[in-house]
Amino acid sequence: MIRLGVNVDHVATVRQARRAAVPDPVEAALLAEKAGADGITVHLREDRRHIQERDVELMRRRLGTKLNLEMAVTPAMVALAEKLRPDDACFVPEKRAELTTEGGLDVAANKQKILEAVKRLQDRGIHVSLFIDPERSQIEASKEVDAHAVEIHTGTYCNAAETEREKERDAVAAAAALAHNLGLEVHGGHGLDYDNVPPIATIPEIVELNIGHSIIARAIIVGIEQAVREMKQLLAKARG
Ligand code: PXP
């Protein structure tokens, strides 16, 4: 069975919009586990725009599945990950102005830096994956820097026009086969939703998908009726 990692960053985005205590991404993560999530993914960004260090600490203690920490390859983040000790870490490129992670990590052009960071975390027992575009050079470089896994960026497939979809899906499938043959574990993610996920989930080498936006977006829609009903009941009760 393919594993589902649920990314709960957006829960923290709503909380941070008010610098409030709710919604709590830890509570959301625990409920996601209850619903069958095989792991929880969070991106601790350098600007701390959503997930905070404390969220990661609490999840580390309270999750029953596994915690996957997405992070930039910087000395500060590597030191923090050594301290926080997630089960898995996924190195991603990070730009301050971006709305979400844009391209994959350029492993081929930054081999030495990535090799050292991978080694530091793997020495602590943390499995490291590298978020990369579905390109041969990046997969081969990921193997050279001794990563445990690659997470193949599915964003181009997800954003492709109908006529280009199959070609982009084939590129992900070819990348997955190559990575698997090199002995890398294969994950996938970015932009996946309830419509576009099936063709990716059928790629046999992919053992894990990390999905955030579409699940949190759906949670808001399927949960809003109950939330409004509860408030209406409370107001009615207050008036006797
Ligand atoms: N995988 C990685 C490496 C990501 O950076 C993200 C976004 O944080 C995701 C998966 C999840 O993407 P989405 O929110 O589009 O499902």
Summarize the structure in words.
There is one protein chain. The protein has 240 residues and is α/β, with parallel strands linked by helices. The chain has one domain: Alpha-Beta Barrel (TIM Barrel), CATH 3.20.20. It has ten helices and eight strands. Strands 1-2-3-4-5-6-7-8 form an eight-stranded parallel β-barrel, surrounded by seven helices. α2 (25-34) packs parallel to α3 (53-62). The longest helix has 26 residues, at 213-238. The termini are far apart. The structure holds pyridoxine-5'-phosphate. Pyridoxine-5'-phosphate is lined by residues 7, 9, 43, 70, 90, 92, 100-101, 131, 151, 189-192, 210-214.
Radius of gyration: 19 Å
From the coordinates shown, what is the CATH architecture? Alpha-Beta Barrel
Question: Quick one: CATH class?
Answer: Alpha Beta
Class by helix and strand content?
A: alpha/beta
Helicity, in percent?
40-55%
Shape: globular
Give a nutshell description of this structure.
This protein has 240 residues and is an alpha/beta fold. Helices cover 49% and strands 17% of the residues. The chain contains 10 helices and 8 strands.
